[in-house]
Amino acid sequence: MLMKVNARALDASESSRGPRSPLQRAAIGLLVAGAVCLPLLGSDYQVRFVAEVVITGIAIMSLDILIGYGGLVSLGHASLFGGAAYAAALVAYHVSADLAIVLLTGIVTGMAVAALVGVVVVRTDNLFFLILTLVTTQMVWELIFRSRELTGGADGLRGIPPLRLHLGFAVWELSGATGLYVVAALLAVGCFLVAKAFIAAPIGRALVGAREQPLRMTALGYSIPKIRLIALVVAGGIAGAAGSIYPFINLYIGPSSVHWTLSAMMLIALVIGGVRSLYGAFIGSAIYLSFQTYASSYTDRWQLVVGLVFVLTVILMPHGVAHALQRLSGRFMTKNGGPS
C-alpha cells in the first residue's frame, strides 16, 4: 500500500530514474573535468568562491529534503546552517581546528538544533509550519546577536584558525583555496549520497507518502510527526555539515548566517535550481551567488536582478533549471533516435 501511495510522487525524483542518457553522462563528465581543472586554471578568489557555492548548495540540498519530498516549506533553515557554523568556529577557537572535530561538531549541532525546532513544528504544516520555523530562527538569531562575549554579537567572529587535517604522519593546513575547495567538493559528494539514500529508503518514501496522502498514512499506522522529525534531523545534519566548513572559507562568521533572510535566499535558490532535484540545489546556489557577487559590483540594486531571474524562472521554467535541462536532454535524445 505504501508503495502505491508513493510511486507516482517518486517518479520525478532522483531515486526513481532509469539509466542516464549518453548526453547526461557527457554533461556529468564535463562537470567532473571542470571541477578537477578549476584549482589549476582558476584564481584563488574564483576557487574560494566556487567552494562557497558548493557549501551553500549542500545546505540548499538539505532544505530540498523538507520542501521537495516532505512538502514542508521552512524559513528556519538558517538556524541549522548558521548555528552549526558558529559552533564549529567556537570549537576551532577554543578546542581544535582539526577537520574531523569541526565536521562532527557541525553535524551534531545541526541535528540538535533541528531536533529542538522539530519538537515545536512537526505537528503543524503549511503556513503554520513556515511561521513557526521563522520564529524559531529569529530566536536563534537573537540569542547569537545578544551573546556578544561568546559570539561577537553584531561584529561576528573574525580571525578563525584555518582548518587542519591530521594524516597521522603529518598535518595538512587547509588555509588555501584549493584545500578548502577539495574539502567542499568531497563533502558535497558525501552529503549528496546520504540525501539520495535517505530519499530512496523506506523513511524517505514514508516522507513522500506523508506529503501526498497524510490521512491514508495515518490510517496505515504511520506517525506523521515522527516521520517529519526524522527528516528534519537528517536535513539538520546535512546542513550542519555544510555549516561547519562555511566559517573557514572567509575566516569569518556573522549573525547574518542565522537570519531569516538567509533562509529566504536558500528557498529562492532552490526554486531557481529545481525543487525535488538534489543536484538542482547546486545549480540554484551557483546562479544566486553569481548574481549576488558580480551584479552587486555594478549596481546596488542587485536584489532586483535576482528578483527578475526568479520571476523569469518561475514563468519560463516552473520546475526549475534542473528539470528544464532534463526535459531538453530528453527531447534531444528522442530527436536523434535515442531512448526517450
Topology, pairings included?
Blueprint: H1 2-10, H2 22-41, H3 44-69, H4 77-94, H5 99-121, H6 126-146, H7 148-151, E1 157-158, E2 163-166, E3 171-174, H8 177-200, H9 202-212, H10 214-219, H11 224-250, E4 252-253, H12 260-273, H13 280-295, H14 302-316, H15 321-335
Antiparallel strand pairs: 1-4, 2-3
Helix pairs in contact: 1-9, 3-8, 3-11, 3-12, 3-13, 4-5, 4-6, 4-11, 5-11, 8-9, 8-11, 9-11, 12-13, 12-14, 13-14
Number of domains in the coordinates? 1
Low-confidence stretches: 1-18
What is the mean predicted local confidence, pLDDT? 84
Helix fraction, binned, reads: over 70%
The fraction of residues assigned to DSSP E strands is under 5%
CATH class: Mainly Alpha
Short description:
Helix content is 73%, strand content 4%. The chain is built from 15 helices and four strands. Strand 2 (163-166) and strand 3 (171-174) form a beta hairpin.
Task: List descriptors.
two-stranded antiparallel ribbon; globular; 15 helices; 4 strands; ABC transporter involved in vitamin B12 uptake, BtuC; mainly alpha; 340 residues; 73% helix; single chain; disordered N terminus; two-stranded antiparallel sheet
